[in-house]
Write a structure and sequence with these properties.
With about 675 residues, the chain is mainly alpha-helical. It is built from 28 helices and five strands.
Length: about 675
């Protein structure tokens, strides 16, 4: 089934039931991974169970670095593949392996050194301290499997291979589950290793998973000179994800430290909650994963009703499914706790805590789905704000305040945090519905309005024009096309991309304008925007294959980097000249013109960097750079003269500084 038919017209519930089962299976295996670990360790010793709760934030931090870096690689590779740049995408994949090894080494050394201090801050029990150090040093020092598997998995996913990573996760989890009892209790002649055995089983599962994805995920290293640029790009894309994931580490660490002031058993009870929460969270986690492509596609196609329907259906399904968890936590807390421990104090504390926490499962549905919804529509600022609000602003401060009222009242932190986050999410959603793009949306087809089609042309020269805002670049390009008698593409290019992809014209047209000043890389890497970027790249290549033309904007110079007979032009002008032009054309005041020029140029630079990894306006990216303050007619003549020289005798060069051009048009 075509994606347009699946995401654009199929019944939402059918899509969710089709996409969710594989995701839920993988998450179920991962949940069992965590639960079985704690189950066997709890049977072996109470101190080991507490140690697992204490080391849990450290493991989350490790996962945040590994997965976040992988997300950075995945995002860059997806952008490169979307614009047809397989060679550079493979370079980023090749950088991934050495980068993973480096991150693992740094993390391993740091964890090995700080674990004794971390353990003593978290507990006063010498037995627990020993177990924290033993387990923590093994899972951190030998975590190379986790880092490599995370990178190679994202490389495969960027190429559309979702099956192999899922198989790897399942095999890795099964390996851990099988080895746990064998190594912890010393079965079948193996040595009894206790909590060290649990740690070895964990890293063995990670290594096995890495081996499964290695064959297709490993790429040979590129030349050393590309590493600084590629690593910087990877982290520019990946750091926001690392920071978002790390917030979970710090809030769980903060709650652990608060509970440690009461007793170790309270820390253990919290750790057991997170083990069970992982299991009950599976349907909600699968829902989060599955709704992103549905919402992003329909938002880009401006089918807002389907976005709303997807959100409402996912919330309803989530509430129904999470209600099961609520009932279990309210009515079966003792039985759930006794699965892992016989410590009566842990059970007594946990029974009270589980009942309070169980109430939070229902508002947790909206507090978790709203950030995903905003991520899917490119509202990265709102998505990040909700995550930070929940994990940084609310959990630990509220936990501390409620702890002052006693251990029993501490557990109020969970339902209050989820309710407040959901309330803010609803307010953000109401703001979203008031946006012009949303509130004025109609069920339009992409080809409504003017009929769009490629214009007749003959083989010859293709001229791409990039320009600073207010430099008359579009006007110059149109005149050049008229004088050469070849097609001109600007808005027409957007219409063609919309027609080909089924996406909305306005959304495609404004993708670089809509990038917020903050987190613009997150916005540009969102699925909705990536669809529009790929649609544009495809139509630009189709336009170029049709024959001679002039194309203005949309990073066409980069998209056609491997195309023959392309002349890349950049048009700039002094700021005061551009301010005057913007005032004349748009009726802006001087301050408005200056502000709009700065914002537009920054957006174009961000868009170009995201597409190409290069600096917008760098003279090395163009054959011809023109200062348009010499006049529109003179600028047109310059382009025509250069075209004539290029299509005439060989390949003459031109002095790009002849028009007063300095080394860089636009400093980012």
């Amino acid at each position: 089934m075509e994606q347009t038919d699946l995401f654009g017209t199929e019944k939402i519930s059918k899509i969710l039931f089709r996409l969710a089962p594989p995701v839920m299976l993988a998450q179920l295996i991962q949940a069992l991974y965590n639960i079985v670990d704690s189950f066997f360790v709890g049977k072996y010793s109470d101190s080991g169970l507490t140690a697992l709760s204490i080391i849990y934030p450290m493991q989350l931090l490790m996962i945040a670095f590994a997965v976040g870096t992988g997300v950075g690689i995945n995002t860059v590779m997806a952008a490169k593949l979307g614009t047809g740049n397989r060679k550079e995408a493979d370079e980023y994949a090749g950088v991934g392996t050495p980068l993973a090894v480096t991150l693992w080494f740094l993390f391993a050394v740091a964890c090995y050194l700080i674990l004794p201090f971390y353990a003593r801050v978290s507990t006063e029990s010498e037995a627990v301290i020993r177990d924290v150090i033993t387990y923590g040093r093994i899972v951190c020092v030998f975590s190379f499997g986790l880092f490599l598997e995370s990178i190679w998995t994202k490389v495969l996913q960027s190429n559309g291979n979702m099956k192999t990573p899922m198989i790897a996760q399942i095999i890795g989890a099964v390996t851990n589950i099988i080895l746990d009892p064998l190594l912890i209790f010393g079965l079948f002649g193996l040595p009894e290793m206790g909590i060290a055995g649990a740690a070895i089983a964990t890293v063995a599962g990670q290594i096995v998973a890495a081996l499964v994805v290695m064959k297709k995920g490993f790429h040979k290293s590129p030349k050393a000179e590309v590493y600084p640029h590629h690593i910087a790009t990877i982290f520019r894309m990946g750091v926001p994800n690392i920071l978002m994931q790390s917030t979970y580490t710090f809030y769980i660490l903060g709650l652990n430290l608060i509970l440690a002031t009461f007793c170790d058993q309270a820390v253990t009870a919290l750790g057991l909650y997170y083990k069970w929460q992982t299991f009950f969270y599976i349907p909600l986690g699968a829902m989060q994963t599955c709704i992103v492509p549905i919402i992003s596609y329909n938002y880009a196609a401006r089918n807002i009703d389907r976005c709303k329907k997807t959100l409402s259906d996912s919330v309803i399904f989530g509430l129904v499914l999470m209600a099961v968890g609520t009932l279990c936590f309210l009515f079966l807390p003792e039985q759930m706790l006794r699965v892992f421990t016989k410590d009566e104090q842990v059970i007594a504390i946990g029974m009270i805590g589980f009942r309070f926490v169980g109430i939070s499962f229902l508002p947790m549905v909206t507090s978790q789905i709203f950030p995903v919804f905003f991520q899917a529509v490119g509202a990265s600022l709102k998505s990040s704000a909700l995550t930070i609000l929940r994990t940084v602003v609310l959990f630990v401060p509220l936990g501390y305040l409620f702890s002052l009222l006693g251990l029993d009242r501490f557990w109020l932190t969970f339902p209050v945090t989820e309710v407040v986050t959901s309330t803010i999410g609803i307010l953000f959603y109401r703001q979203f519905l008031q946006k012009d793009y949303v509130s004025e949306a109609k069920p339009l087809r992409a080809d409504d309005g003017d009929v769009v089609a490629l214009k007749p042309s003959k083989p010859g020269v293709i001229i791409t024009i990039a320009r600073e805002h207010g430099s008359s670049g579009k006007q110059i390009g149109k005149l050049v096309a008229q004088k050469l008698g070849i097609p001109f593409y600007y808005k027409e290019m957007v219409a063609l991309a919309a027609h080909e992809s089924g996406l909305d014209r306005e959304f495609i047209s404004d993708i670089h304008k809509n990038a917020p000043d903050a987190l613009h890389d997150l916005y540009l890497s969102s699925q909705a925007v990536q669809r529009a970027i790929k649609a544009q790249a495809l139509i630009i290549r189709k336009i170029a294959a049709n024959g001679s033309c002039v194309i203005v904007g949309r990073a066409a110079d980069y998209v056609l980097r491997n195309h023959k007979n392309v002349i890349r032009v950049f048009i700039h002008a002094p700021l005061e000249y551009r301010i005057g032009r913007v005032m004349e054309v748009y009726g802006d005041t001087p301050d408005e013109a200056r502000r709009n020029i700065r914002r537009s140029d920054k957006a174009r630079a961000s868009y170009y960097r995201h597409i190409s990894g290069k600096r917008w306006g760098n003279v090395r990216n163009y054959e011809l750079v023109i200062d348009s303050s010499v006049g529109v007619e003179k600028s047109v003549e310059t382009v025509l003269d250069y075209v004539s020289s290029m299509t005439g005798a060989g390949e003459p060069t031109i002095d790009v500084f002849a028009c007063g051009r300095d080394q860089s048009v636009q400093e980012e």
